[in-house]
Specification:
Low-confidence stretches: 1-29
Number of strands: 17
Structural class: alpha/beta
Number of helices: 11
CATH architecture: 3-Layer(aba) Sandwich
Strand order of the largest sheet: 5-4-6-1-7-11-2-12
Shape: globular
Radius of gyration: 20 Å
CATH class: Alpha Beta
Bound molecules: zinc ion
Mean pLDDT: 87
Largest sheet: 8 strands, mixed
Helix content: 25-40%
Order of helices and strands: HEHEEHHHEEHEHEEEHEEEEHEHEEEH
CATH topology: Alkaline Phosphatase, subunit A
Number of domains: 1
Distance between the termini: 42 Å
Length: 419
């Protein structure tokens, strides 16, 4: 335990810092609270965006948001699948606590307090546009939304021969980015045309998710692999959607973050559900808008932070949204990065895969133990459990203690629903 505490202290010391300069403190110094737009980018790796240093990336809209706003360089999700991660974003609680720990098998309970519920109580009009069946209303994330467009009825275009048969599986399950943009325009119409009432709009883009099938001409851009081409398409449609939003709602506070990343060969994996590697749990994350200063933030932040931050931008007490997030305007010390995927439990049986990291070391239990020194081994190739058993044991103890203290402390855990 002493070693575990020492590690925690080291990590806290390393990351000690105060995040300041986000949106202005609240409506007290504004005539009206601002409209808010949350954009979630499914399956988008942080290191495949220009703002994070990828010189091949074609992401000018995201990069401009990052340049003119707060860019979080060390942002993490608590869950590597779509529904749990989005439930975390809307509640400010990590999946261990809110209980939605898998796609398709859990729904967020009515007892949960969500950001759109709090905003609607405060006079906001609320709307959401989803692009994946994984976020259908029956999974409970529609709480607090006046308009929740999960009716994915458009034809899903398939461009390349290899997907003609397999692509039919996503018919009705996913939207292309331009279809998401069209749905967002309809949602903006439903928000009432900006007649003085502030609005909250959540837009979810899913194109970077498999199948990787970019439309022409993006499939023929030199040095732009298909996955990156899909991200480029999303970036363009996101930029135009934000222009649409601003034309209706006026200047908005905009938050953009991914629900998780993607392995592109790391650990011999193509996907995000099985492993908690850095390409999967580390995400792009920016905050932009009136009163948001332009700065790069190195302090680790989490997807759980977005709910209290946007609540605070609306002048609401951030502490009412989630025990696991902080208002990024005022910052705080983040000494724990925890992540989980329960997909291996469903696929192979046994326990969930969980990861716990400090500033330098990352411990994973799947239930096979892994320990990586991210400073000397950022690709997570050398398992140090045998070489450093004391460090592994200390982190195991910390992880177990954290799970015991956090798991399902809310009044109601998520109830399974029929898929
Ligand atoms: Zn996802």
């Amino acid at each position: 335990m002493r070693a575990a505490r020492a590690l925690a202290v080291m990590f806290a010391g390393a990351i000690l810092g105060v995040v300041t300069g986000a949106c202005s403190p609240g409506p007290s110094d504004r005539d009206e609270p601002p409209s808010l737009v949350l954009v979630t980018l499914d399956t988008t790796r942080w290191d495949r965006l220009g703002a994070y240093g990828d010189v091949r990336a074609r992401t000018p809209f995201f990069d401009r948001l990052a340049r003119n706003g707060m860019q979080f360089r060390n942002a993490y999700v608590d869950a590597s699948t779509t529904l749990p991660s989005h439930a975390t974003m809307l509640t400010g609680e990590i999946s261990l606590r809110h209980g939605v720990r898998l796609n398709g098998q859990f729904a967020l309970p009515d007892a949960a307090v969500t950001l759109p519920e709090r905003l609607r109580d405060a006079g906001y009009a609320t709307a959401a546009v989803l692009s994946s069946a994984a976020l259908a209303a029956r999974y409970g994330l529609d709480q607090g939304f006046d308009h929740y467009d999960d009716a994915i009825t458009e034809d899903y275009p398939v461009f390349h021969e290899r997907w003609w048969i397999r692509g039919r599986r996503v018919q009705g399950n996913q939207r292309r980015a331009w279809q998401t943009r069209a749905a967002a325009r309809r949602a903006l119409g439903a928000l009432g045309g900006g007649e003085g009432e502030p609005a909250f709009l959540w837009i979810h883009f899913v194109d970077a998710h498999q199948p990787v099938d970019p439309p022409p001409p993006w499939d023929r851009v030199p040095d732009l692999p298909g996955y990156d081409a899909e991200i480029a398409v999303v970036d363009r449609e996101m930029g135009w959607t934000l222009r649409d939003a601003e034309s209706v709602l006026g200047e908005c506070v905009v938050a953009v973050l991914a629900d998780h990343g993607e392995n592109l060969g790391e650990h011999r994996d193509e996907g995000h559900a099985l492993f908690l590697t850095e390409p999967v749990i580390r995400i792009p994350f920016v905050l932009n808008g009136p009163g948001v200063s332009a700065e790069i933030v190195e302090v680790p932040v989490r997807n759980a932070d977005i709910a209290p931050t946007l609540a605070a931008c609306a002048g609401l007490p951030p502490e009412e949204l989630g025990a696991d997030g902080v208002d990024l305007r005022t910052g705080g010390v983040r000494d724990i990065i925890f992540a989980e995927t329960r997909v291996p439990t469903v696929t192979f049986g046994g326990a969930a895969t969980q990861a716990f990291r400090t500033d330098r070391y990352k411990y994973v239990r799947s239930p096979r133990e892994e320990l990586y020194d991210l400073e000397t081994d950022p690709q997570e190739r050398i398992n140090l459990v045998a070489a450093e058993p004391e460090r592994a044991a200390a982190l195991r103890e910390e992880l177990e203690s954290y799970v015991r203290a956090t798991e399902h402390r809310t009044a109601a855990a998520a109830a399974p629903v029929a898929p």
